[in-house]
Amino acid sequence: MEIDYSDLTSEKITNFHCLSTFTSGVEAMDKFIQGEVSYDNLKKFNTKFDIILHFAGSSTVSSAQKNPDIEYEKSVLSLKNLLDYCIRENSNAKIFFSSSAAVYGDKYKIAIKENFDLNPISVYGKHKVENENLLEKYWQKYQIKSNIIRFFS
Question: What values do phi and psi take at 27, rounded to 5?
């Protein structure tokens, strides 16, 4: 599938979601659906996912600070929709969630270790913590498997 990216402004890109599925022994199948991460849109893929990569939401602290409600929808609500979809349609999928060092806040002046207390000070960091907590709850209640990757920059 050929996609023309020439007209995508940064605002359009933040609203563009892409999911891919890879099935063992089969070539990669890519399908792009523009829109919200919702049950109905996820159903359009008409396939079972082995692995789901969740990168929805803003990639910067500043944009989340400027538009916290929009960022909440794109980050937290999109993950909740994805998790609810997995419960109903794809309970064996493993979700990889992109989190951030922003979950630690700025109280640490040394190299941060994974087990340090979470203390976000930004909206962005708070959304990431809320998402990490959602993943833990869905694991405990529904056994939806996930991995959290905390990126540092």
Answer: -60, 155
This model's pTM is above 0.85? no
Question: Beta strand pairing status for 51-54 and 94-100?
Answer: parallel
Q: What is the pLDDT of residue 33?
A: 63
Q: Around Cβ 48, how many Cβ atoms within 10 Å? A: 12
- Residue 109's pLDDT is 73
Residues of the chain scoring pLDDT < 70: 1-34
Exposure string for 15-44, b = 16+ CB within 10 A, e = fewer: eebebebeeeeeeeeeeeeeebbbeebbee
* Tens of pLDDT, residues 95-106: 999 999 899 988
Which DSSP string do the residues of 5-61 spell out, in sequence order? Answer: -TT--HHHHHT--EEEE--TTS--EEEE--S---HHHHHTT-S--SEEEE--S-SSH
**Two tokens at 118?**
């979470």
Question: What does the angle CA 53 – CA 56 – CA 126 come to, to the nearest 5 degrees?
Answer: 110
Distance CA 114, CA 127 (A): 18
